[in-house]
Target: Transmembrane protein
Amino acid sequence: MVGEIFGKAAEIFDRRTVLVTGVPVAVFWFGLAALAGTVVGYARIQHGFEGLALVAKTFVAAGVVPWIVLCALMVSSLEGVIFRLYAGHWKIPLLTARRLRHYSAVREVLVKKTTSKELADRERAAYSEQLQRCFPMTGLPGDLRSTYLGNILRAAETYPAVRYGMDAAFWWPRLIAVLPETARSDVSSARAALALLQNISLLAASFALLTVVAWIGLVTALPGGFGVFLVAAVGAIVVMIVALVSARWPTRLYGDLLRSDFDVFRSTLLVQLGYVRPDSLSEERVFWKSLRELLYQGYTDPPGQKVLKASRDRFIRIPLSVDLDAIAQTSAAVGHAARRLAVAMWVLATFTGILILTTGALVVVTVLQP
Model:
């Protein structure tokens, strides 16, 4: 019965939701239930469960799955909030200021190492790459975040603005619509891995907090040490730290994928919008800024209008009635014919060379005869 209900729940949710939220939530509640069993007694729980009627057993067993599904839905709906939490979008006056000073000092050290004459070129390049991947490229104090993950994500967000003048928050929803399925799948997988580790870390922290609170209450109300609660709390803290540290790698991968998508597919977005990429990078920065103002506000300044008009005039509009399958078949046929022609030319050239050599040899023999 429970297996069938789990199967129905898996049909409702996609694989990403099940892995990212369902599994961590299920482990969280089963862990709390296991600790509660140490207090009540597993034999007592089993005896009480066996004493229930069949209908009551079914309701008890079936009620577990809806509760886990409900909690998984709540965690999934809060994915954006959790993401912003780990990205450092919070302000605790003393803690935030201290963390910002720390990361500001780390960035200054990296900046000095990238310009140090005492280091080799390879070492300076490594420090420069670390600086660009882990800290915002603008270099402004206001762009720093109070967490390590937040600075990596902010570095990826500021990259298109510094390189191309593209506001990542504005252009990413439009860019992802034109990405190929493979690129979109890579970004989704990296985001899912990051969300999974964030959920594990947050649930482990919640588990440790609830365990400590329960231990204090049990020690106060009942005789006994209940040391298993403290062991479980320590284990949950270890899991939280490991998950938080491990989240650095999918965060860096996610940031690298965002950068590469802007590098590679921004021209595809331009074609879909009916423009052609300007020739110079300076004009492109003006172009993206002006196009954002045009789409967001409905107008832009005269220099921006000039750049947009020049790009629009260069755009070659492809008829919508073009049959892409027919084009692919024609291209394949042309390629096959070209290969056959190349083979025929090679055979003809070979036979021509042999004929010339044979004729020359006969002429030489005829001339040299006495």
Summary: The chain has four domains: 1-77, 90-165, 168-267, 274-319. The chain has a mean pLDDT of 78.
